[in-house]
Design a protein that fits this description.
The chain is an alpha/beta fold. It has 15 helices and 15 strands. It is elongated.
Length: about 425
């Protein structure tokens, strides 16, 4: 057979889900040959027996490898060490045992797209996420039109995480992937493929992705703080290395990607409504976990994200802002949202006056707020008496960077 597509499946103790995966594969209507490479990692729940049954039914298509040990526990690189030696297809797909396809034309559509667009290194499509812990279904990717994916969404996936079961990539590129040790292999493949060509998204729901199944990534991340810490350690290591590998093409987006992961870690394993002291302690734990190779990054994370802490405004006003503000100072609050209004209340309690609010772009319909003037950043003359306090959660790093670029003499972080 002239194999065009290799479908690589890693399964472990997924007897209640595995037939959905297999039926989704074999219902596909295609005009090319494909192979299904399955590694069963020492399952004990009947998964192996189901796989053997399908192997008998499709002996020329299924390559079945039954492991005596769980390969995840040995921390082997799943794609490189287990699948790559057996892949024959021009294109490769990775499919986990608790995910499945729901459209019979999915495989053909992705194959046709890749054949017609040699500049595309990887394409993927939308999916429904089934949270089995709540038995809820949600759309995976929101408000993303079909088409080429920009660099920001490659790293930050602003519209939603791309489903592993939807990926379809060029095998020859895959075989050349450097071993940068990504935190998850699907993220490693996506970011690497973006260095090799265009990434294309199809806004069609062609698969179901289960989350929080027993033993899955999301289940382990939620239950095991050590697993979550190890994930974040690997994530930071990976993006430090990937930044160099990609010649810093994606550098301005990496902070937001890692930031989102660290905020989620604190939310799940500590308390997102923590104090400044608790926040600092959590970051010290992460510094130890990462072997202190990214302390500068975590210090930056502290300065930017500490605004989320319950006592942030009181602490900043008492410990920092008073030292930076003199009788000649002109204090501006950057932002006009909830955080900025909270800062006003705290400042007035301490008899500290403000000169107004600042926005990135002047809004002609918003000239005053609480009887204070609202300026655009271009209206502020950056003399030595100017003090600006970025008071927002989202986009705070970008605002601080903008103020630094405009030579703001005093920035409260």
């Amino acid at each position: 057979m002239d194999i065009k597509v290799s479908i690589c499946c890693m399964v472990y103790n997924q007897a209640q889900y595995i037939e959905d995966m297999l039926q989704g594969i074999f219902m596909q209507k295609v005009n090319f040959d494909y192979e299904v490479i399955i590694h069963a990692a020492a399952s004990t729940d009947g998964t192996t027996e189901i796989l053997k049954k399908y192997k008998e039914r499709y002996p020329d298509i299924i390559k079945l490898f039954l492991e005596e040990e769980n390969q995840y526990s040995k921390e082997r690189r799943m794609t490189g060490e287990i699948f790559y030696p057996y892949i024959k297809g021009k294109y490769t797909i990775f499919l986990e045992g608790d995910d499945y396809w729901i459209n019979e034309g999915k495989l053909q559509a992705q194959y046709d797209l890749m054949e017609a667009h040699p500049e595309v290194s990887l394409c993927y499509h939308n999916a429904l996420v089934h949270d089995v812990s709540k038995d809820e279904m949600n759309l995976c990717i929101h408000k993303q039109e079909s088409g080429y994916i920009n660099d920001s969404d490659i790293i930050c996936v602003n519209h939603g995480w791309y489903p592993t079961a939807s990926s379809f990539c060029r095998s020859d590129y895959l075989m050349e992937q450097p071993d940068l040790q990504p935190a998850t292999e699907d993220e490693g493949i996506r970011t690497y493929m973006a260095c090799r060509g265009e990434v294309y998204f199809i806004d069609r729901v062609w698969s179901i992705c289960r989350q929080f199944t027993e033993g899955s990534f999301h289940d382990r991340y939620r239950k095991d703080i050590g697993f979550a810490q190890n994930y974040n350690r690997k994530l930071i290591h990976y993006f430090l290395d990937f930044n160099e590998y990609s010649d810093k093409r994606f550098e301005k987006y990496i902070y937001d990607r890692v930031k989102d992961s660290l905020v989620e870690y604190i939310r799940v394993h500590h308390n997102i409504n923590c104090t400044m002291e608790q926040f600092q302690r959590y970051l010290e734990e992460l510094k130890d976990t990462t072997g202190h190779i990214a302390d500068h990054f975590l210090d930056l994370f502290h300065d930017i994200e500490a605004i989320r802490c319950t006592d942030y405004f009181q602490t900043i006003i008492k410990e920092k802002s008073i030292d930076q503000i003199s009788s000649h100072s002109k204090l501006y609050l950057y932002g006009t949202g909830r955080e900025a209004l909270k800062a006003v209340v705290m400042l007035l309690k301490e008899n500290i006056q403000i000169s107004g609010f600042v926005l990135t772009k002047k809004n002609p319909r918003l000239k005053q707020l609480l009887e204070y003037p609202v300026y655009g950043i271009e209206d502020i003359q950056m003399d030595r008496d100017v003090v600006i306090w970025p008071c927002m959660v989202n986009g705070r790093k970008n605002v601080i960077t903008l103020l630094q670029e405009r030579d703001c003499p005093n920035i409260i972080v």
